[in-house]
């Protein structure tokens, strides 16, 4: 749930005069209740990565996510890019965002995704230092793997850019995202091609969907189709990334999985 954090990040002095882009990003307020209703229909819990600034600006919307029992995870403060910051700057925004999430949810976040996947050479160490258990920014495998840092271990739950709806469904000149828009069915075909491969080989399927993108009505209508397709194949576990992390760590501890 990035909302207009990315607009303020890119245009700190003129965001308030870019009203059309602002309205596009504000669609989160419409999309999130819609997505939550779909997840409720199928009794599915998922992970929402939310910049802490969005929690401060839109607490009523984020409260809907928490009340529905979904995980709220770390996604920076203003969607800043960690790999453009010094280590101390990155630590400051990491810690500030942890405090915001803790104050809002009552507990420290256990998961992290770097805004725009801009994971820096310091990020893994800082995550371990702050007790973050998992990251989902990197793309180095089809299954969970371990980041060994100077401060401890962080479990990586990898994804892929083709699983991100920005790649298929966004076109905004002001934000520098100029893509050819795919139909909802074309995007769904790509997501499900990944799912079929992961299902066959026992992999991890992590989609990266933004409410103001995939929550648009014609795209949201494909979500139930995907869920039902997955359920019908069987032997599939829908879970939050926190739950997946706990499961993988248990398997590592009992020796049944050696990442």
Description of the molecule:
The structure is a single chain. The protein is of the alpha/beta class. It has a single domain (5-253), classed as TIM Barrel (Alpha-Beta Barrel), CATH 3.20.20.370. It is 47% helix and 10% strand. It is built from 13 helices and eight strands. The strands form three sheets. Strands 3-4-6-5 form a four-stranded mixed beta sheet. Strands 1-2 form a two-stranded parallel ribbon. The protein has a two-stranded antiparallel ribbon with strand order 7-8. β3, α7 (123-129) and β4 (134-135) form a beta-alpha-beta unit. α9 runs parallel beside α12. The two termini are 30 Å apart.
Brief write-up:
With 259 residues, the protein is α/β, with parallel strands linked by helices. Helix content is 47%, strand content 10%. It is globular and about 55 Å long.
| Rounded Rg | 18 Å
The total tally of domains equals 1
Specify the CATH class.
Answer: Alpha Beta
Largest β sheet strand count, sense and barrel closure? 4 strands, mixed
CATH architect. name: Alpha-Beta Barrel
Strand content: 5-15%
Give, in spatial order, the strands making up the sheet with the most strands: 3-4-6-5
> What is the residue-mean pLDDT, rounded to a whole number?
97
First-last Cα distance: 30 Å
CATH third-level topology: TIM Barrel
Number of helices: 13
**Class inferred from helices and paired strands:** alpha/beta
Give the SSE string.
HHHEHHEHEHEEEHEEHHHHH
Give the uncertain stretches in residue-range form: none
CATH superfamily placement: Glycoside hydrolase/deacetylase
The strand count comes to 8
Residue share in helix: 40-55%
- Report the principal-axis shape: globular
């Amino acid at each position: 749930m990035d909302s207009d954090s990315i607009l303020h990040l890119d245009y700190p002095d003129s965001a308030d005069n870019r009203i059309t882009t602002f309205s596009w990003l504000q669609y989160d307020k419409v999309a999130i209740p819609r997505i939550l209703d779909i997840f409720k229909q199928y009794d599915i819990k998922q992970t929402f990565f939310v910049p802490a600034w969005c929690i401060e600006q839109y607490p009523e919307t984020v409260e809907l996510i928490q009340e529905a029992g979904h995980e709220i995870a770390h996604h920076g403060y203003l969607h800043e890019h960690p790999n453009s910051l010094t280590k101390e700057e990155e630590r400051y925004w990491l810690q500030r965002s942890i405090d915001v999430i803790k104050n809002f949810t009552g507990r420290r976040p256990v998961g992290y995704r770097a805004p725009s996947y801009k994971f820096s050479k310091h990020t893994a160490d800082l995550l371990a230092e702050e007790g973050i258990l998992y990251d989902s920014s990197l793309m180095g495998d089809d299954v969970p793997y371990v980041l060994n840092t100077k401060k401890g271990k962080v479990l990586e739950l990898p994804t892929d850019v083709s699983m991100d709806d920005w790649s298929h469904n966004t076109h905004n000149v002001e934000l520098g995202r100029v893509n050819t828009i795919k139909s909802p069915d074309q995007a769904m075909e790509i997501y499900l091609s990944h799912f079929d491969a992961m299902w066959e080989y026992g992999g991890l399927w992590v989609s990266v969907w933004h409410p103001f993108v995939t929550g648009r009505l014609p795209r949201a209508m494909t979500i139930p189709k995907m869920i039902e397709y997955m359920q019908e194949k069987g032997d599939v576990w829908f879970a939050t990334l926190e739950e997946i992390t706990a499961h993988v760590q248990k398997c590592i501890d009992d020796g049944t999985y050696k990442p």
